[in-house]
Write a structure and sequence with these properties.
4 strands, 6 helices, alpha+beta
Length: about 160
């Protein structure tokens, strides 16, 4: 069996750990993700400014903290999506039309990025086996094909 890269939780940097275990290496740091979040914030600010910088909506928007990251180290799905674009990978929302194949047969996919109670985690196929690579675990957890479907269904139910 090949060596499985796993990172344990450090602070609230679950997005960083989630991406790194997905990619199976230390590809992203908190600084990298913060830079992506700041770029997204700037793009959003520019879009808001198009409606006029004198508006109360613009003033309220620039006064709010970032929606892409917070002081604890949490990063938004948009940050994860942009980070994966750098690696030429695409996120597909599980509940979207494009995600139908994943819902019909999760085993046909390569990985799942999940969020439960503001915690990012990765479920990934390595070789022919599935693993829960959650950074809150001490190491990778093997999932059978049957358990994969049940695990995803339970995550979805718990996230409702």
């Amino acid at each position: 069996m090949e060596v499985i890269f796993h990172e344990q939780q450090d602070g609230a940097l679950c997005a960083q750990h989630c991406l790194n275990v997905l990619l199976q290496g230390p590809y992203f740091t908190a600084v990298d993700l913060a830079a992506i979040a700041q770029q997204l914030d700037e793009t959003e600010r520019q879009h808001m400014a198009e409606g006029g910088t004198d508006s109360s909506e613009y003033a309220r928007f620039v006064a709010e903290p970032s929606h892409n990251m917070d002081d604890s180290g949490f990063f938004s799905i948009q940050v994860l999506e942009k980070a994966l674009e750098v690696m030429k990978l695409e996120l597909m929302p599980y509940d979207s039309k494009a995600g139908q194949a994943a819902r019909d047969d999760p085993r046909s996919q390569q990985a799942f990025i999940c969020n439960l109670e503001a915690h990012w985690l990765t479920i990934r196929k390595i070789g022919q086996q599935w693993f829960n690579l959650n950074s809150l675990l001490t190491g990778p957890e093997l999932l059978s094909d049957t358990h994969l479907s049940m695990f995803l269904a339970q995550l979805k139910a718990d996230g409702q």
